[in-house]
Amino acid sequence: MTSDPQTDPGVRNDGERSGWASLAHRDTIGIVTVLAGGVALYAMNLYFTAALMPSVVEAIGGRRYYAWAATGYLIVAVVATMLVSRSLDRFGARRSYVVAFALFGVGTLVSSLSPSMLVFVGGRALQGAGAGLLIGLGFAVIRSTLPPGAWSHAASLVSAMFAVGALLGPALGGTFAEVGAWRGAFAVLAGVSVLLGVLAGRVLVDQPTPAGAVQQPLPVAPIGCLGVAAGLLSLSVTTSGPAAVALVASGLAAIVAFLIVDARAVAGVLPRLAYARGSRLKWVYLTVAALSAGVMTENFVPLFGQQLASLTPLWAGFLGAVLSVGWTVAQMVSAGTSEAAVRQLIRISPWVVTASLVAYGLTQQQDATTATVLLWAALLFLAGVGIGIAFPHLSVAAMRSAPDGAEGAKAAAAISTTQLIAYTLSSALAGNLLAAGEDEVSAARLVVLGLAACVAVGIVTATRDGRPAQAD
Fold first, then answer.
1. Which of 168, 308, 332, 433 has its CA 20 to 30 A from that of 238?
2. Beta bridge mates, 17
3. Rounded CA gap, 419 and 441, in Å?
4. What is the mean pLDDT of residues 282-289?
5. Coil, strand, or helix at residue 391?
6. Residue 403: CB partners within 8 Å, gap ≥ 6?
7. How far apart, in whole angstroms, are the C-alpha atoms of residue 472 and residue 462?
8. Residue 61, Ramachandran bin (φ over 0: left; ψ between -120 and 50: alpha; else beta)
9. DSSP 206-272
10. Can you say whether residue 338 is alpha, beta or left, with left for phi > 0 and alpha for psi between -120 and 50 degrees?
11. What is the dihedral of CA 236, 239, 240, 243, to 10 degrees?
12. Contact status, residue 196 vs residue 38, Cβ threshold 8 Å
């Protein structure tokens, strides 16, 4: 039975379904569930794991490798995001999604069964491979699998999954941690990925590769430099004295090598426009990277909450999600503001985040009272607001920095890549600072203040790119 456009509000005059009703239709609801579910799995896993990590360390040890659980995950996720278009061209949507869910599920199961932290980190790396594909596929597949009338609503739904993950992740992770079942938590997550993988195999189809399609070469050399940089910085956590200094110096040299090699690559990690003389795009990316370093704070908040305030895993997990809640609220409120207001929001954003994190870092103390915890929550929320008032406008600035639509789309897409790179490097830095602390309080202060110093770089870069409108 077909719908009547005159009586069905979800059907346009041309007979095509549109709006939210189009997403709930029997022909599309399965596809939408796969797309949104994949991104939700990625987002929830971030907060889910952060809430569980203190319990993982208590059970299998390896505190010095704490940051590796995030670094290994993110390094592989960066590479995987660059394989999305190649995977779709070669295998199609159905097989790409099945592989992504399988990698995520296997990695999660390995983490669940880990006897040591090094094995756990290996499982997290496999998770990262699947997660990187899932977050890229979630947006890339909308156009080819859903009717045009559903595109904008589908994109909004997929984006909303990040907020859902920020709320559900700490709740589920904290609940499992409180009952001492962190292994069971990862097993459940693996089971969800299997169910979504089966659904993807049923509702998606593989589109043939267009004749004459040319694939861009994978930027192996730049990715290699980036992986070496993150690896060296992470390894420095396990050493001390001159060896640690040498590893940190080598890691920084590898970052410089990444920028040089990437600028010369035919198909680099970042658009070539980012390296062009006089281009504003590099300032956009540097501001994004600076703010992303602030986001990395939330990976350590549950640990500090449990160690310094004796919070339960559940409440420590929610405390870790407060920054993302502030980020989400600010993005919604700041949308649609005037260009003049956007200019000011981008410029004040790093100031707000830096000041909030410095205050949060300086108030870290042993046996923190309820009032202190509430102060931490307020400061983390404010830091999230600082990030949220700028982030969506930086994406628009990236789009408008390019001379044509295709290049603008590439420039905007590289925002996610820049985020993951910044997360990877700032996570490695935070791991070094955590290991350098003489006690729990000093470690917490070093981590937070060190990440705040990274955000402070954005105070300079944001003034170089406070104009979201004109192209170069």
1. 308
2. 11
3. 28
4. 90
5. helix
6. 471, 472
7. 16
8. left
9. PPPPPTT--PPPP-HHHHHHHHHHHHHHHHGGG--THHHHHHHHHHHHHHHHHHHHHHH-SS-SS-G
10. beta
11. -70
12. yes
Judge contact between 274 and 432, C-beta under 8 A. no
Range of lowest pLDDT (295-304, 318-327, 424-433):
424-433
Tell whether pTM > 0.85: no
The pair phi, psi for residue 398, each rounded to 5°, is -65, -45
Residue 126 pLDDT greater than 80, yes or no: yes
Q: What is the pLDDT of residues 390-417, one digit of tens each?
A: 877 787 777 677 665 556 656 766 777 7
User: Taking a C-beta distance cutoff of 8 angstroms, is the pair 99, 154 a contact?
Assistant: no
Contact 46, 174 (CB under 8 A): no
**Residues recorded for the chain:** 472
CA 125 to chain CA centroid, nearest Å:
14
- What is the pLDDT, as a whole number, of residue 183? 93
Which tokens is 204 given?
């998606």
Tokens of residue 337, six digits: 């503001």
Q: pLDDT tens for residues 216-275?
A: 677 788 888 877 887 787 777 667 778 878 888 898 898 899 889 988 887 777 778 888
DSSP H/E element including 467: none
Two tokens at 110? 């390995």
CA gap 202, 215 in Å, rounded: 28
Q: Tell me the C-alpha distance between 450 and 99, whole Å.
A: 38
At residue 12, does pLDDT exceed 70? no
The rounded mean pLDDT for the chain is 81
Do 352 and 383 contact (CB within 8 A), yes or no? yes
Highest mean pLDDT among 44-48, 142-146, 363-367: 363-367
The C-alpha atoms of residue 122 and residue 51 are separated, in whole angstroms, by 19
What share of the chain has pLDDT > 90, as a percent?
28
Q: What's the distance, CA 189 to chain centroid?
A: 18
Rounded Cα–Cα distance for residues 327 and 390 (Å): 10
Is the model's pLDDT at 436 over the cut of 70?
yes
429-434 long-range Cβ contacts below 8 angstroms, 24+ apart: 429/233, 429/454, 430/67, 430/296, 430/299, 430/300, 431/65, 431/66, 431/67, 431/68, 431/71, 431/233, 431/234, 431/237, 432/67, 432/233, 432/236, 432/237, 432/244, 432/248, 434/66, 434/67, 434/237, 434/300
